[in-house]
Amino acid sequence: MKNIYKNRDYKPMLLKEISKPFDSKDYFFEIKFDGIRALVFASPKHVSIQTRNKQDITNLFPELQEIKKLVTKEVVFDGEITAFYNNLPSFSHLQERTHLKNPVKIKAQSQENPITYIVFDILYEGKDLTNLPLTTRKMILDNYSNNDVFIKSKIISEYGKDLFKSIKKLGLEGIVAKKKDSPYLIDERSANWLKIKNLKEDNFYIGGYTDTNKNESITIYLGEKIKNKLFYVGKVSMAKKHELFKKIIQSKKRETSPFTDYNDAINYITPKFQCHVKYLERTKSNHLRQPIFKGEVKNKE
């Protein structure tokens, strides 16, 4: 294999998603932090940061230059850039950092509100480590000390169900399960690594839609009623196979938006249908993150 420190034209190993946690002596379990997946290329002289889509974001997080003090040779780490608020991960606070463009503001925020790089793997340390089993890579990673911005992910062996119960109580994103003997498969999605998300769920009214994919699916616009007013919370895709699809398409369109706070160029309908949606969390503006349509709610007004 080429020197992966110098050859950065690749993406990190990906995870398959399953719905339920499990216990197994063959797996390590870790908390899934809600942030930006990133590879860090570090040497004693420089640190560069690359997202899973190969975007260079080095200039956004100057505080991660501290990592070069931890290494004595060329190293590649894999981990999650995470912002914390009230001692819990906050994706909205991380987004505030990613939207900055002014170098002066970026530097100020890196000192006033530094992010944390949660490190869970090491791919390279003077030589390629990707063919080594995860257990060995974790032992190599343990040689690096934590500091204010570089924190190694804690692992739990065997008891994934207990870890999932704990993160649900804290409202965290989920957990990951990784086979102890798994190699690092660059740019592959493997069943050796699994993610189990702590999804929230609720029912929402449908206030409009747009046609997509030549009428094979539609995007439905969701709202929740508060004091008899409909407030927009986001949109989600729904396939033609659902019975609700025909009901929405055949609904009489209305000229005005049923939403109190949303008025865009879509097909508005009277919000008499409800659907069940799973989602990761709500943003500061109360919009749903990563919503998934799960079906129609029957016998509702």
Could you explain the architecture of this structure?
The protein has 301 residues and is mainly beta. The chain has 2 domains: 14-197, DNA ligase/mRNA capping enzyme (D-amino Acid Aminotransferase, Chain A, domain 1); 200-297, OB fold (Dihydrolipoamide Acetyltransferase, E2P) (Beta Barrel), CATH 2.40.50. It contains 5 helices and 21 strands. It is globular. The protein starts with 13 loop residues before the first strand and ends with a strand.
Give the SSE map.
Blueprint: E1 14-17, E2 23-32, E3 36-42, E4 47-51, E5 75-82, E6 84-85, E7 88-89, H1 91-98, H2 103-112, E8 116-125, H3 134-141, E9 150-152, E10 156-159, H4 160-170, E11 174-179, E12 189-197, E13 200-212, E14 217-226, E15 229-239, H5 243-249, E16 253-254, E17 267-269, E18 274-279, E19 281-282, E20 288-289, E21 292-297
Parallel strand pairs: 1-12, 8-9
Antiparallel strand pairs: 2-10, 2-11, 3-4, 3-5, 5-8, 6-7, 11-12, 13-14, 13-17, 13-18, 14-15, 16-17, 18-21, 19-20
